[in-house]
Amino acid sequence: MNRRISVKKLVKYSALLALAFAAVGTLAACSASNSKSESGKSDEKKVTIEIATVGTTRPFSYDDEDGKLTGYEIEVLKEVFKGSDKYEINFNKTKWTSVFAGLDSDRFQIGANNISYSKERAGKYLYGNPYAKNPTVLVVRKGTDIKSLDDIGGKSTEVVQGTSTAKQLEDYNKEHPKKETKINYTDGTIQQILVNLNEGRADYKIFERISVDTIIKDQNLENLEVIELPSDQQPYVYPLFAQGQEELKTFVDKRIKKLYEDGTLEELSQKYFGGSYLPEAKDIK
Fold it and tell me: What are the Solute-binding protein family 3/N-terminal domain coordinates in residue numbering (predicted)?
């Protein structure tokens, strides 16, 4: 015999079902909206920013006694991304030319290895705010007759291909075809190049002051002396970004400005450079 459900019971069952669906919906909404952990940070996966560095350019980027990558630029970038809810970083040690090849292929998003400004690079990459000042110097052996760039014709030097120094000397040879400087290309580190210069295997080296002063002191290269060179542009050090990384550049630029203003850059400069080697405030935007 078929039993009919009363209207009251039907209403009661419908109400219970409605409450059940409402509870499920509330839980789903809470789960979706609760994208932050108890600590208040987002549980969503962060974007990994790959940073390229050579890792042998002391004091900007090098391995410490425990084999851990450190240096002024490394520690600055750690501070830049510290506490970011969106980004995390990974450092990649690679050859100098591979820094730029990696930026071209978007394998790396940032290059950081004592990179100076050049028009050629500015046409291919994005320059961030400068975070160090590093004037260019001429390094020679004591007692040499080389006193300025006017004296390098017929003399020899070692350079890494693709660097701003290599370009500078290649341009010099085009302008002085009858008295070119002898360029020996090498994959050696700046430490090795300065040791070779100290021992007489080259006549001079053009490089940035901070690294030169640090290496001469650390390696006790007593035969070398340093001559500061005139420059028509600010000798700054920059992080370099791959094309298409405008949003990342904006984030980093703001953080660098903040680190400049709160004294963090000054502290790191004193720690790694032994002095204040910061850009002018007007040049950090």
Answer: 48-276
What's the count of helices (H) and strands (E) in the chain, helices before strands?
Answer: 9, 14
Give the model's pLDDT for residue 118: 87
CA-to-CA distance for 212 and 198, rounded, in angstroms?
12
Residue 52: strand, helix, or coil:
strand
Q: Which of 153, 211, 145, 157 is nearest to 181 (CA)?
A: 153
- Label residue 15 exposed, middle or buried (CB < 10 Å: 0-12, 13-18, 19+): exposed
Split at pLDDT 50, 70, 90, the class of 202 is: very high
**51 within 8 A of 110, measured Cβ to Cβ:** yes
Length of the chain: 285
Closest CA to 228 of 201, 209, 245: 209
Q: Helix or strand or coil: residue 168? A: helix
- Band of the pLDDT at 235, cuts 50, 70, 90? confident
Lowest mean pLDDT among 30-44, 137-151, 263-277: 30-44
What single DSSP character describes residue 98? H
Burial (CB count <10 Å: 0-12, 13-18, 19+), residue 7: exposed
Three-class DSSP labels, 190-244 = HHHHHHHHHCCCCCEEEEEHHHHHHHHHHHCCCCEEEEECCCCCCCEEEEEECCC
Domains of the chain: 47-132+236-274 (3.40.190.10), 136-228 (3.40.190.10)
Q: Which of 207, 208, 236, 53 is nearest to 128 (CA)?
A: 236
The pLDDT value recorded for residue 230 is: 82
Sign of torsion, CA 256 259 261 267? negative
pTM above 0.90, yes or no: no
The C-alpha atoms of residue 260 and residue 151 are separated, in whole angstroms, by 39
